[in-house]
Amino acid sequence: MRSSGAKLFLVIVCGFEDAIAKIEALGRELLLPLRVFCSDRISDSDKAFHPGATVFETDYDRGQALQIAREKGEALEKKWPLGHGDCQSLVIFFSNCPNNTLPIFYKAASDWKPLFVRR
After folding, report:
1. Cα(97)–Cα(116) distance, rounded to whole angstroms?
2. Would you call 74 helix, strand, or coil by DSSP?
3. Which has the closest alpha carbon to 105: 48, 64, 30, 50?
4. CA angle 43–32–10, rounded 5-degree value
5. Extents of the domains making up the chain
6. In whole angstroms, what is the distance from residue 13 CA to residue 21 CA?
7. Long-range pairs of 90-97 with CB within 8 A, sequence gap ≥ 24
8. Alpha-carbon dihedral of residues 51, 79, 21, 35, nearest 10 degrees?
9. Nearest alpha-carbon partner for 24 in 5, 6, 8
10. Burial class of residue 98 in the structure, from the number of CB atoms within 10 Å of its CB (0-12 exposed, 13-18 middle, 19+ buried)
11. CA atoms within 13 A on the CB side of 48
């Protein structure tokens, strides 16, 4: 197959580093002239309950919050109580909320009103 010289760009507002690496690897595997640009790369330590995250002051606080988020998350979203793919993301955009964010932030129920409703 001859190359047309075309270039393919993927521009991302924010994304997890491992997901971006998978996209880049798939582009190479498919021999695509793909370049990925990401404004804000998110690492595992940016996950809500990661031991390296700075969201909580103590491990005890992190454990307590994880228990609450998991229990309520299971009631809201059985398959992914901590966000799609267990991402534990804390990303919220002004226009919507990604499904890999903690469901307690975006999913409504009869006994739960989220801060950021997913549309």
Report:
1. 7
2. helix
3. 48
4. 45
5. 8-42, 47-106
6. 15
7. 90/46, 90/48, 90/55, 91/14, 91/42, 92/116, 93/13, 95/119
8. -130
9. 8
10. middle
11. 25
89-100 residue pLDDT tens: 999 999 999 999
Whether 73 and 93 have beta carbons less than 8 Å apart is answered as no
Q: What pLDDT digit, counting tens, does each position of 36-82 carry? A: 999 999 999 999 999 999 999 999 999 999 999 999 999 999 999 99
In the block, which residue shows the tokens 């992190």?
Answer: 62
Q: Among candidates 87, 13, 14, which has minimal Cα distance to 48?
A: 87
| Residue 117 identity | V
Contacts of 99 (CB under 8 A, 6+ apart): 80, 83, 84, 106, 118
Of 61, 69, 10, 13, nearest to 39 by C-alpha is: 13
Residue 84 contacts residue 107 (beta carbons within 8 Å): no
Q: Residue 118 and residue 106: Cα distance in Å, rounded?
A: 5
> Which residue type, as a one-letter code, is found at position 72?
K
